[in-house]
Amino acid sequence: MTILLLLIPISLALLGVAVWAFVWAVRGGQFDDLDSAALDILTEDRPPAAGAVHAGRDNARSARPTPADSPDDHAD
Hints:
This protein is mainly alpha-helical. The chain has three helices and no strands. It has helices at 4-27, 36-39, 60-63.
């Protein structure tokens, strides 16, 4: 029964931290625009800037021929 004397203040302190974090997030604008992130997946990606190097991607992708380079597209 004496453990309640420890657990109740700890739980109230955790509740206070949770309420403070929620108020901080609301004041910081975290909940202002809930729709943009969901709609970002539907928009086209911007083409990469000229000369930009993407970290983590291998260069094998750029070594493949583009559809314009395929021999079927050239009329003789």
